[in-house]
Write a structure and sequence with these properties.
By secondary structure, this protein is mostly helical. 72% of the residues lie in helices and 0% in strands. It contains 13 helices and no strands. The chain has helices at residues 11-30, 34-51, 53-56, 90-126, 128-143, 146-156, 161-169, 174-188, 191-198, 203-239, 250-259, 262-265, 268-296. The radius of gyration is 24 Å and the shape is elongated. The chain starts with 10 loop residues before the first helix and ends in an 8-residue tail after the last helix.
Length: 304
């Protein structure tokens, strides 16, 4: 009687199974955090509005030649958020501005975290004179006011969304670099790193196969936290007139309200909607980031 042997699973299949099981465990723990779920639901709503903006408000919402209202018209059933200084529908502008604000915040956060991760991993792995030089540069960026550096970069570069992304990304990476370097130093002391070196593993193999997967949970949590700061920074730069004047963003709407004298004239409907949108999205990303931190590191003891 012969017995058939079941073929051994491929290493890639086993890896995907472990990743799926890890994702299931992560979601099971994440959904126990009510604040994190609220933040995730809020972000999903804003993301859905941003993606559906061309269908909901139309692509001509920023057109000043066919504005539906009169300049600085107060809220009404036809214009729930009122009108801006050109008579455009503020509700439509806020929905359309979500596309730019969320996109810039996400791209700037990804750039910042990418720079910080590369510097942190390499500084923690190579050490020596390289780590000393890199961390002294990081310390210099840490003590410098981030907003001042971003304003300086946005001033000398052309006014565009790419400029805003670069200005925010290259000035907010030091915190990530510090955290990732500390985690890399802890990972490098583990026995399997020594075994990998003894078996002939090179620098790239150790950093990409052993160190980076172990610091990715920290990188993920840091990304969710930095996105909120990036959105606030984008709004600040746009409010100061350093954004792209051809696109609609929440910060740009606040800057338009300031130029129109909405503060002194008491036109609150020009200021409140974009300001609340910025605050709510920043809070939602912060809640998600705290929940992710609590799941990945239960010792933090973040409240649910």
């Amino acid at each position: 009687m012969t017995t058939e042997k079941t073929p051994a699973a491929r290493p890639s299949a086993l890896a995907w199974q472990r990743r799926r099981a890890s994702a299931v465990r992560f979601w099971r723990q994440y959904r126990t955090h009510r604040a994190g779920l609220f933040g995730l639901a809020t972000l999903a709503l804003f993301a859905l509005l941003a993606l559906a903006a061309p269908l909901v408000v139309g692509s001509d919402v920023a057109d000043v030649t066919d504005a539906p209202g009169s300049p600085l018209e107060s809220p009404s059933p036809e214009l729930p958020f009122g009108a801006d200084r050109f008579g455009r529908n503020l509700l439509g502008l806020v929905i359309w501005g979500a596309r730019v604000s969320l996109l810039v915040g996400l791209l700037a956060a990804v750039l910042s975290v990418a720079i910080g991760t590369v510097i942190g991993v390499t500084a923690g792995h190579f050490r020596g004179w390289y780590a000393t030089v890199v961390m002294r540069i990081t310390d210099w960026f840490l003590v410098m006011p981030t907003l001042v550096l971003a304003i300086a970069l946005a001033t000398v570069m052309s006014r565009s969304l790419l400029t805003i992304v670069v200005a925010i990304g290259v000035t907010t990476w030091p915190t990530t670099a510090r955290l990732v370097r500390a985690q890399t130093l802890a990972v490098e002391t583990r026995p399997y790193i020594e075994r990998a070196r003894a078996l002939g593993g090179g620098h790239w193999h150790i950093m990409s196969r052993h160190v980076l997967p172990n610091v990715m949970p920290l990188v993920l949590a840091q990304t969710t936290l930095i996105i909120s700061s990036a959105i606030l920074a984008e709004a600040t730069l746009a409010f100061l007139g350093l954004g792209d004047p051809t696109v609609v963003s929440w910060g740009g709407l606040l800057q338009d309200a300031r130029e129109a004298g909405a503060v002194s004239a008491g036109h609150w409907w020009y200021l409140v909607p974009p300001g609340i949108a910025i605050a709510v999205v920043a809070l939602a990303f912060t809640l998600c980031g705290r929940a992710v931190e609590s799941v990945l590191n239960p010792r933090l003891g973040v409240s649910r």
